[in-house]
Amino acid sequence: MGLLLAGNQFVRDLDQAGALAMYVPPEGGFEGRYQRRLRTAGYPTLHLSAPGLGDLSAYLTQVHGIRPAHTGKENIRVYFRPPLVTYHLENLPPQAKGLALWLIDGKKLSRQELAYLSLLTQQEPRLKIVVEVGGARDVQWQPLSTIAQAA
User: Fold this and answer.
1) Coil, helix or strand at residue 96
2) Which domains does the chain have, with CATH numbers?
3) DSSP assigned state of 129
4) pLDDT digit string (tens) for 49-98?
5) C-alpha distance from residue 98 to each of 30, 71, 125 (Å)
6) What angle in degrees, to the nearest 10, is found between the helix axes of 31-40 and 2-17?
7) Which residues contact 128 (CB under 8 A, 6 or more apart)?
8) Residue 21: HSE in the Cβ half-sphere, 13 Å Cα cutoff
9) Which residues, listed in sequence order, are joined to residue 48 by a DSSP beta bridge?
10) DSSP H helical segments within 46-143, as ranges?
11) How many Å apart are CA 66 and CA 59, to the nearest integer?
12) pTM of the predicted model, to two decimals?
């Protein structure tokens, strides 16, 4: 019964704060239950690894170029991709409340990047962000803005 109550509190806290910093046990598995709570509350989830994102503002909200590895035998190509978050927000199902962006390994993000993610949820209220920023014995969370200020 504790997870049921904690899961509902997690969704309420995410609705209120917009972005949460989450501490999860290193063995994993517990965060999947909270992701299911988000999906049942009307938030489809999008999972990404935080260190490989590069420039967050370009990757999440702007059209950006991607260059595959160059082997020296071909011309250098640039493929342009649509903005990840904007694209998914435009194509949400009608019954969805918004989009939940779940970033793993967020402890490698800088303070400025964490502050940007917190600001992004204020600019786009349908977007909710959860960043796994560290480990703990049990699942804990707090608003991402407090982590960005303290880091």
Assistant:
1) coil
2) 12-56+84-150 (3.40.50.300)
3) E
4) 988 788 888 889 998 888 887 777 778 888 898 888 999 999 999 899 99
5) 23, 41, 8
6) 70
7) 14, 15, 18, 19, 38, 43, 98, 99, 100, 101, 121
8) 24
9) 103
10) 56-61, 84-90, 111-123
11) 10
12) 0.86
